Amino acid sequence: MSVAQVFDKLEQNFNADAAQGLDLVFQFDIEDDKTYHLVIKDGTCTKAEGPHDDPSVTLIMNSETLQGIVSGETDGMQAFMAGQLRAEGDMMLATKLGELFDMG
């Protein structure tokens, strides 16, 4: 699965109920691919390629780590502890990704 397909899948598996009242930007700097960001606003999710002017949190990883986390093969917290995933900004927001996207 390509990085672009991973973000398509995230957008398709978005849980609008969990995003009611939220106004957040998750930016993903994929070290061996492109940067993408997801704008979560009042129950909607908009995917865009490229960096955002003011992301709430930026997650930095390679495409293999991204695919592992999205597929459920890699635990995000373990990836973070192992140094495969870095976060800038409000790191606690990263924990909301599991609620906002149903990847099961």
TrEMBL record:
Residues 9-102 form the SCP2 domain. GO terms for cellular component: cytosol. It comes from the Bacteria. InterPro entries: SCP2_sterol-bd_dom, SCP2_sterol-bd_dom_sf. It holds the Pfam family SCP2. PANTHER family: SCP2 STEROL-BINDING DOMAIN-CONTAINING PROTEIN 1 (PTHR10094:SF25), STEROL CARRIER PROTEIN 2 SCP-2 FAMILY PROTEIN (PTHR10094). This is SCP2 sterol-binding domain-containing protein.
